[in-house]
Specification:
The complex is a heterodimer of chains A (about 160) and B (about 325). Helix content of chain A is about 65%, strand content about 0%. Chain B is built from three helices and 14 strands. The longest helix of chain B has 22 residues. Classes of the chains: A mainly alpha (about 160), B mainly beta (about 325).
Amino acid sequence: MNAFVPDFPIARHLPSKSPRWSLLGALLITALVQTQVQAQSQAQADDSLYQAIGGQAGIARVTADFVPRLRADPRIGEFFKETKLSELQKQLTDQLCVVSGGPCVYEGSNMKDAHADMKIRKADFNALVEVLQQSMDAQGIPFNVQNRLLARLAPMHRDVINAP
Amino acid sequence: MPLRSFRLFRPLPSFRTSPRQLVVGGLTALLCTAASAQLSVAGGNGKLLLTGGISSIDGAAGGGLTPWAVTGSYATTGQFGASAYITRLGTRDYSFTGYGVAASWDDRLEVSLARQDFDTGDRIAPLGFDGLRLKQTIVGLKWRIAGDAVLDADTWMPAVAVGLVHKQLDTVDAFKDVLSSLGAKDHGTDVYLSATKLLLAPGVLINGTLRATRANQNGLLGFGSTEHDRYRLQPELSLAYLVSKQLAFGAEYRFKPDNLNPSPFGDGLKEDDWKDLFVVWAPSKNLSFTAAYADLGKIVPALAPKRQRGAYLSAQGAF
């Protein structure tokens, strides 16, 4: 009858089942500490990520691997059919340098304008992420460094994805 | 002559489908659909590796014990996808087999169908149920209502989903009597809200689920009881760490109600929370394997007084 009246198990569990709460607490604390570390590293706007990728030379190696790989990708290679690949590579190098905290200036157009005349779906965006991961793997960038860079690039999905 | 007329008037074989047939039929249909979809549009592959979670024991995508705000398969926006899984869990006194299928659309909507078979072995033979197997069929529906668990890496906004799972126990007649003596029903529906966030930079996934439920031991011992028939809100927490694109490990904790305590058996049907430590390996988008160490607490402690811990193994195919 009053079947939907909820009962809060937190109150019921708290006094008698403390070992469970210590596990739960440990899990939460681990998560919070992790994100705290992440927040601090971003707040200081340092160049540690830029350095971790290998500075200008490291980024240049990644983009030199990435651009031909992108063009050859069966899913999204067609998007770059008309693109001047050497120009794309230069702009990507500058962009990754800026995004990772390096001492560069990105002079290319913003992400929204750059993709305005293409229909980019979420699947295309994720395919590009996968190709970038392949390039970073190939250039020996450690997984945790890759993720720090991807975390700064991923929010660009709001400007890049423009088709359902 | 009498024999012939008997045959003539014998009723046609019944076409009423059992839940098992339903699941097997559904699985076949989905596999065929997925196979043809793969051939015709080659779609449903647009999500990043492991970002569809695995198949939970109730069939919905998530961790092993709890649903997450992700949809199964690798279908992203505008795509269809499907997945199928089988899970085995052996504990000190019991063994559990689960299998099922899920289909998702637009990384938004997920429909799942699962079948569970809990083998009590000889544990509850003293009650006259030697070799009793508790089986149930579970239909799930999940709708991601907001957020993106992966790409919104600069905000705290998680993916958020609402879902329901409807469970129907198969019951042999004698066990039906036990259920009714406890005041438990043979079917029930859980409703849940899940929030999932991948903290991309550190590679940590957090999920919190709040479930409104009346299920006893996930429904395997029915739903509600004479003493406790209300829905209760139960939190569930999952934490996972990505070691590589293909490998993650983590832990889960799922609170459960304790409706059958007390019962006519005193505290003999008391139930505990569930937890596990897991490792997931996805060699490709089509295949993932999960190994876990699960602790289901005590299950029918009147007859099986030790905690039920053991290995959980699951394989999932996604199409």
